[in-house]
Design brief:
This protein has helices at about 95-105, 150-155, 185-190, 215-230, 230-235, 240-265, 275-295, 305, 310-320, 320-325, 330-340; strands spanning about 85-90, 115-120, 170, 175-180. The protein is globular, with a radius of gyration of 20 Å. It starts with about 90 loop residues before the first strand and ends in a 21-residue tail after the last helix. The protein folds into 2 domains: about 50-205, Glutaredoxin, CATH 3.40.30; about 210-330, Glutathione S-transferase Yfyf (Class Pi), Chain A, domain 2, CATH 1.20.1050. Helix 4 (about 215-230) packs parallel to helix 7 (about 275-295). It has a 4-stranded mixed sheet, with helices on both faces. Helices cover about 35% and strands about 5% of the residues. The chain binds glutathione (GSH).
């Protein structure tokens, strides 16, 4: 049994020049299907290459663009046409980006059309891993390839892959490859491309209506930068001024959202229509008080005590729409951040509060 510190050590994308990657350790030249990572035994310290090292030298966390950007499309002749049972979605209940895709899959009634696997909440040096529900409640194995790690799938799709091994992953079982790993695009595909396979009541249901596209795109842009990603840029900052700057922008954007919701006729951002803007914001806000306030030091305020309009909006989504509650797993969320990010929380102690994770209506 390997110790955690001896597991596969993956390239630090931000320090490739300083620590050249030994490609042969990750390639599967002979046969991937018997891929056995070469172990580079090393202890992981602050200045060693490490999958869990997030910030660059200047103290900034920079999210890398996703690499697999193909589309499932109903257009005739499309490379990836929609089909029932053909595609499989890999997520983490902990991850806000993956959570978006789980919500849209559920809201669009795609449960019987697109399979779902959930990685273990613990993200260690080997990346996301698969565990059985008996080992880790709420997790699943990989029914497609019985992979041990999510990285196995990335290398199966591209033996030369050099990016991070992120969730969500949308997999095509027919061509045995990774179609897309960008949540913003996956939710757009789920939104309409599978309408020929869903129950009639879900046909035409859209979270990106024509009439609101401009407003949704505009809001998504600053919410992505300062809120969805803003919590990570604050929490992963390794310099005081970098943290100060991102946490300030984050709370300015929360103030702006509070104002928008106060003016909305409700219950959603754009009045009575639930859009992807709500879904994309929800996955950050539902994690805010339980995790981001203390773990990412986003503590100029809390949603429950300082943002009444956002709080009301949040509670409506969680308590009144089962697809939001059913896809929100506070145990995976809290344990993942607090026990995986050892550079932030070296002893991995998970705070008990806030209690409750979300307040009753
Ligand atoms: N742009 C991606 C970001 C996904 C992402 O960063 N996922 C995180 C979890 S919250 C991940 O899997 N991180 C693992 C890693 O970077 O090693 C998306 O929105 O789909």
């Amino acid at each position: 049994m390997l110790k955690a510190c001896q597991r596969l050590v993956l390239p630090d994308l931000y320090n490739c020049a300083k620590y050249p990657v030994h490609r042969h350790q990750y390639s599967k030249a002979s046969s991937y299907y018997s891929f056995k990572p070469t172990i580079r035994a090393m202890t992981t310290t602050a200045d060693q290459p490490n999958i869990l090292k997030w910030a660059s030298q200047d103290g900034e966390f920079r999210r890398k663009p996703s690499s697999f950007r193909n589309f499932i499309s109903r257009e005739p002749g499309a490379q990836y046409p929609p089909e029932k049972g053909r595609y499989h979605l890999y997520i983490s209940w902990a991850c806000p980006w993956a959570h978006r895709t789980a919500i849209v899959r559920a809201l669009k009634g795609l449960d019987n059309v697109i399979g779902l696997s959930v990685v273990d909440w613990y993200l260690a040096e080997g990346g996301w891993k698969f565990s059985s529900p008996e080992q880790t409640p709420g997790s699943t194995i990989d029914p497609v390839h019985n992979s041990s790690y999510l990285s196995d799938l990335y290398f199966r799709a591209n033996p030369e892959y050099e990016g991070r091994f992120t969730v969500p992953v949308l997999w095509d079982k027919k061509t045995d490859t990774l179609v897309n790993n960008e949540s913003a695009e996956i939710i757009r595909m789920f939104n309409e491309e599978f309408d020929d396979f869903v129950d009639p009541k879900f046909k035409g249901l859209t979270f990106y209506p024509e009439s609101l596209r401009k407003e949704i795109d505009e809001l998504n842009e600053w919410v992505y930068d300062t809120v969805n990603n803003g919590v990570y840029k604050s929490g992963f900052a390794t310099k005081q001024e970098v943290y100060d700057s991102h946490v300030t922008k984050l709370f300015q954007s929360l103030d702006r959202l509070e104002h928008i919701l106060a003016k909305s006729s409700g219950p959603y951002i754009f009045g009575d229509i639930l859009t992807e803007a709500d879904i994309r914001l929800y996955t950050t806000i539902v994690r805010f008080d339980p995790v981001y306030v203390q773990h990412f030091k986003c503590n100029l305020g809390t949603i429950r005590y300082n943002y009444p309009q956002i709080h009301k909006w949040l509670k409506h989504l969680y308590w009144d729409i089962p697809e939001f509650k059913d896809t929100t797993n506070f145990e995976h969320i809290k344990k993942h951040y607090t026990k995986s990010h050892r550079q932030i929380n070296p002893l991995g102690i998970t705070p008990l509060g806030p209690d409750p994770d979300i307040e009753p209506k």
